[in-house]
Each structure stands twice: as structure tokens, then as C-alpha cells.
Amino acid sequence: MVHGQGGVKFQNWAKTYGSSPELYFQPTSVEEIREILDMARKQDKRVKVVGGGHSPSDIACTDDFMIQMGKMNRVLKVDKEKQQVTVEGGIFLSDLNVELSKHGLALANLGAVSEVAAAGMIGTGTHNTGIKHGILPTQVIALTLLTASGEILECSESINADIFQAARLHLGCLGIVLTVTFQCVPQFHLHEVAFPSTLTEVLDHLEDHLKRSQYFRFLWFPHSENVSVIYQDPTNKPPSSSSSWLWDYAVGYYLLEFLLWISTFVPSLVCWINRFFFWLLFSSRVENIAISYKIFNYECRFKQHVQDWAIPIEKTKEALLELKAALENNPKMVAHYPVEVRFARGDEIWLSPCFQRDSCYVNIIMYRPYGKNVPHLNYWLTYEGIMKKHGGRPHWAKAHSCTRKDFEKMYPAFPKFCSVREKLDPTGIFLNTYLEKVFY
């Protein structure tokens, strides 16, 4: 019989949200998960599954039963001919990257953080950048789902197709993802080039930048015109990097945390801190070549509040200039660097922020130096208002203030998703406070 642990305190990576589940489980088999679901039904408890806990919101929080899938983390099958891999839902992408490399394979795109579970990554719609690339769930070609009733469903484009389009971005509310099959590509190296520019230049020549680099993104430093443009492209050149620059970068971030802590007492310093760190770390050209996942991933050095919305790509310039004007017109409203701007191809996943449209993701950050909370509500609400005005949809992993009424307007397929959810989980065993705001 499976046993749960009491007294566990769950906190997300940023320590901005947490909960105290009544029982915490780490199952090792489907049979154990079924036992947990049976126990939950008999005791009228809800169940939430958590992976790496990186979502900067309360999407994984519960006071009832929590399942951590870290012990169901095997690579089940590698098909080198089809370049496909099937894994258990609890595997971290950081481990999968290494395993794929052994077989000469890779995922075509990855988010900034790989300490996330495969099932959790598709559950919230993790993305990176590259207008020819979709969000990470678009690399999923099949999955298996354990429903509230204990039934296992095989899902793909040809089997349970509607459930598949729902489950590729499932929010943790359709069931428990047991296995995921990814379409991979041959292993590749990336040549990363970062160079300084201005917001005006990048927005005026956005099409050129998108065509010039397969994985183009840029970082805008609020309260200034400063931008760091980042190109990442496949290369046959051998790995190389600037170790001195990496050292400067690491030391710079320790200094940044200290200065941002001081700015909590003198907020007007933030404008100068943003400009200083652009000059210190981003005002010269930097190049780096490494295996793809080492370029895609980067270390989040300290805790932060974060928002990330996807807007139609044609709204990029208008929305960013409006955000810039809002900061200029409200001197007391400060914004930490960077505003990270990324791009993704449209898709057909029902709850994807990129559903049926190429999109621009605008990611804003307010750091928490030494864990200290910083005032960010005014900035958050101003940003959300601009994103909504331009047809934005929030990243599901991030904190936002949207409700069902908002989602019904944002997502044409929202009623379809709700229908599948109600069919698969009629009693709401997989719901929590976050999801109640989404569906009720």
C-alpha cells in the first residue's frame, strides 16, 4: 500500500507561492498512483501533481494530496530512425538532454530552465524563441494520460485526437501524464552572438532580425533605449566561449543583487542600475558556441516575480512603445531589467497562447534581492492592461489576474477544452484554487 508523507511544505522555486499538502506522495508505478486516486475519492480530497516546481504561480499548490513524479523518470524508448523518444512524465528535461545527446539527438527548442518535468513543461506551455519554432508542447507527438477514473488513454493526432490537443497543454486538470513522446532532431551546436542596439532600431527592423537568426530574441533595459540583441543559430564550428566574460557576468549579478536591495529603499536608483549593467555586461559584442541545450539554458541567479504574455506578432512594436511610454509617464513606477522579448510560431493546441497565430512573448521581471519582496503591483497591472489591449494571452505558468470570462474571449477553443475536462474529471479531483479561477 502506498504511503503519503505529512508535514511537507511545498514552495515554488522563486518562493513566491507555497502550500502545505495534507499528504505528499512520490509514487514509483501506475498502480501506486491509482491507489492515491482511490484514497482521494474515498476521502473527498483533491490531487495535484508537481514536477520541478518552477512555475512562478500557485498552479501546483494544494492543501490536499500532492504527487511528485520524480521517481517516474525513465527513458522508455529511443527510436533513432524516426528520431523520437518516449519518456515517463516525471523526467527532468536536464536529464533528458543528456540522454538524447548519447544517442546523437536533441530537442529542437528548449526553455531557459531544464530543471522541469516533461509532463509539467507541456502542462503550462513552456516556450523559448524562434519564429519557425512553436512552444515546446508542439514537439510532443503522443502521450498517455491516467484519468480520474483510473483509465489510461493513449493520445496522439490519430488516437483520441481531441484529448491530445487538450492534453498537450493540460494545466494539470485532465489527468496525470504518464508518458510523453517527443519528436527530436539530430544533435546540434549553436553559435550565440549578443550585441548592443537600441529599442528603436530593433522595432523598426524587426522583420530583418527575425529572418537573420533562427532563435532571435532581444533584451530591453527599461528606463532607457538600450537593447541587447541575441542571435542563436546552428553551426558546425567547434565549441568555444569567453571565460572572462562569464566571470564578469557572474560577479556582475552579485553586484546587481546588492544594488537592487539598496534600490528598495531608494527606488529612483533602478533607472541608473539598469543603465549601469547594460554598460557593464551588455554593451560589447559577445560570442559563444556550445551544444544546443547549454546555449538554450541559462542560470536564474536569484528569485524574482515574473509575468509573460503572448501578443500577436504584428502588435510587438505598438505594445512595447506603449509600455515604454507608461514608464516614462509614471516616474515612480520602476522596472527591473530586462524585458525579454521572444517569438514563437502559431499552433493548433487549444490553450496555447500561440493558438492560430504567430506570437511575440513579452516577459517582465522584478527581482527579489536576498528574498526581499519589492513593490511591483502598479507595474504588473499597467503591463497586463497593455497586453490585454493588444490581444495578449498570459503564460499559464505565470501569475496573472485573468478569469474564465477573459479566457473565453482569448481562446476560441476554450469551450472545447472545458468539455474535455468535465468529461475526464467530472468531480474536479484535479482542481485547485488557481484552476477554479480559470474554469469558474
Q: What can be said about this structure in brief?
A:
Helices cover about 30% and strands about 25% of the residues.
Q: How large is the count of helical segments? A: 14
Q: Please give the oligomerization state of what you see.
A: single chain
Instruction: Estimate the strand proportion.
Output: 15-25%
Low-pLDDT stretches: none
**Which word captures the global form?**
globular
Q: How far do the termini sit from each other? A: 35 Å
Q: Can you tell me the CATH superfamily of the largest domain?
A: FAD-linked oxidases, C-terminal domain
The number of distinct β-strands equals 20
Please name the CATH architecture of the largest domain. 3-Layer(aba) Sandwich
The helix/strand class is alpha+beta
What is the averaged pLDDT score?
94
Give a short account of the largest sheet: 8 strands, antiparallel
What is the CATH third-level topology name of the largest domain?
A: Vanillyl-alcohol Oxidase, Chain A, domain 3
Widest sheet: strand order?
16-13-15-14-18-19-17-20
- The CATH class of the largest domain turns out to be Alpha Beta
Tally the structural domains.
Answer: 3
- CA-atom Rg in angstroms: 22 Å
